[in-house]
Amino acid sequence: MVLSVDKLMKALYVKTRNLNASSLKTYVYEAPVIATLYFNYWRFFMKKIICTFLLFCVVHPAFAIGTVHGKVVAVRVDGTGQGMVEFDKPIAGTPPSCVHHAFKNKLAFDANTAGGQAVLSLALSAKAMGVEVEAYGLGKCGVYGGTYVETWNYGVMR
């Protein structure tokens, strides 16, 4: 039986509003039952909220992103416009499970999009100047090779 808080509060209000000598005996016996039901309802509700929050924290895809703080070693762009940036350090953090071991230090981009062109520009500039790039993956594969290289999310040239 599912009880809402409104039903419980209404039952408690009705019981206390029309209190007289004959109904006092009934109220004394039923009030603890209503209070217990109310407490159990909130305890169950709070358990659901806490479990949902913990589940969200554990399996949220934001925790499955790779990060790298390093220099650009190479930039590869194919004729299709898909490319990848190779760094001097491996991708740290928790890369997604789709990343192939041969691409542990690379992030992919699509130069056919405006964002991909910005990534290409940033990578080439960083390579030419020899400065470090702070880059973050998207947490999924899908741009270069379909399912082998993590997709570039954003980056900063330092």
Description:
Keywords: Membrane, Transmembrane, Transmembrane helix. The chain crosses the membrane at residues 49-68. This protein is an alpha+beta fold and 158 residues long. The chain has helices at 5-17, 21-59, 114-129, and strands at 66-77, 82-87, 92-93, 106-110, 132-141, 150-157. Strands 1, 2, 3, 4, 5 and 6 form a 6-stranded antiparallel sheet that branches. Strand 1 (66-77) and strand 2 (82-87) form a beta hairpin. The longest helix is centred in the N-terminal third of the chain and has 39 residues, at 21-59.
Features:
158 residues; alpha+beta; OB fold (Dihydrolipoamide Acetyltransferase, E2P); 2 domains; 6-stranded antiparallel sheet; 27% strand; elongated
Distance between the termini: 61 Å
Tell me the helix content: 40-55%
Share of β-strand residues: 25-35%
CATH class of the largest domain: Mainly Beta
Low-confidence stretches: 59-63
CATH architecture of the largest domain: Beta Barrel
The helix/strand class is alpha+beta
Largest sheet: 6 strands, antiparallel
Mean pLDDT: 77
Pattern of helices and strands: HHEEEEHEE
Globally, the shape reads elongated
At CATH level 3, the topology of the largest domain is: OB fold (Dihydrolipoamide Acetyltransferase, E2P)
Q: Number of folding domains?
A: 2
Number of H/I helices: 3
How many strands in all?
6
Mind telling me the C-alpha Rg?
A: 29 Å
